[in-house]
Amino acid sequence: MMVSVSGVIYLAATPIGNIADASPRLIEVLQNADVVAAEDSRRAVRLFRELGIRAEGSLISFYDAVEASKSAELVQRAAEGATIVVITDAGMPSVSDPGYRIVREAIAHDVRVSVIPGPSAVLAALAVSGLPVDRFTFEGFLPRKSGERKAQLSSIALEPRTMVFFEAPHRLAETLADMHEVLGQNRQVVVCRELTKTYEEVVRGSLGELVEWSNREILGEITIVLNGADETNATSEADWIALVAERVALGISQRDAIADVAHELHVPKREVYDAVIAHRNQSK
User: Fold this and answer.
1) Spatial separation of the C-alpha atoms in residues 234 and 242, rounded to whole Å
2) CB–CB of 107/135 below 8 Å?
3) Could you say which DSSP state residue 20 is in?
4) What is the pLDDT of residue 191?
5) Are 115 and 26 in contact (CB under 8 A)?
């Protein structure tokens, strides 16, 4: 078992847009680190330049594909006394970015892990959203394919807590459309674009309204904040029909899908069945 002499692995939060959000502690740690493990070394070089840092240690790439293979080596160096700093392109490492594996490796070998707190797109979007933030979940990126995305949305359709998602700008319109189809047009949602940057934009409204708004070219970093379910938006007939349809699309029989939805929503199975049949007849 490795026993750390005096080294440490820092997870360091970097600005999500505005460089002035970098803390003096972040600058000091980056300046004095033995190794800076960066998700994108080119962005790290730009960050150093903008912060006026002349790093004394080495800079290595530490992205998803190499995190597993490089974690053991970095933990070994920390165990021997080195200071390792892990940074991502923006925000806090391990939140939909590299960082988790090296932390697990360090814990397994009794190597100290610490954190340099700072900017977070998740918390920034929650704070500015105006939606309830006393309880929330972070859902990361939804699947890229529409069918898988709608299936995952169906699985969290009844989640009562506010939910936060990351999304690529070129998929935003499709994601909002799938949310609209699965969750209904009235669910409140907030799209945060380019937080803390010059062209920051925060758009609030119902899913129906934001589906229409997103029918244009959208650029930049995107964070979506979605209101949780309540009795008015989780138990309408439209929700029953959508949830049954999603299960059927995954290969579940209509009978079992109706039974599952009725059980989850605590509504009579006969009512769900009648709603599904009526919808099918209207669609003919």
Assistant:
1) 11
2) no
3) G
4) 98
5) no
Q: Which residues contact 34 (CB under 8 A, 6 or more apart)?
A: 56, 57, 58, 77, 82, 83, 84
Give dist(CA 147, CA 57) in Å, integer: 46
- Domain borders along the chain are 8-119, 122-233, 235-283
Inter-helix orientation angle 24-32/41-51, to 10°: 120
**For the chain, what is the total number of helices (H) and then of strands (E)?**
12, 10
Report CA Rg, the chain: 23
**Between 241 and 177, where is the model more confident?**
177
pLDDT band at 233 (very low <50, low <70, confident <90, very high): low
Cβ atoms 97, 20 nearer than 8 A: no
Record the tokens describing residue 273, joined without a space.
Answer: 């069945």
Q: In what order do the strands lie in the sheet with 58-61?
A: 58-61, 35-38, 83-87, 8-12, 113-116
Name the pLDDT band for 284 (thresholds 50, 70, 90): low
CATH number belonging to domain 122-233: 3.30.950.10
Nearest to 251 by CA among 145, 129, 147: 147
State the Cα–Cα distance between residues 172 and 211, nearest whole angstrom: 9
Instruction: Say which CATH topology domain 8-119 has.
Output: Cobalt-precorrin-4 Transmethylase; domain 1 (3.40.1010)
Higher pLDDT, 267 or 253: 253
Phi first, then psi, for residue 151 (nearest 5°) are: -65, -40
Phi, psi of 11 (to 5 degrees): -95, 115
Tell me how crowded residue 115 is: count the other CB atoms within 10 A of its CB.
Answer: 15
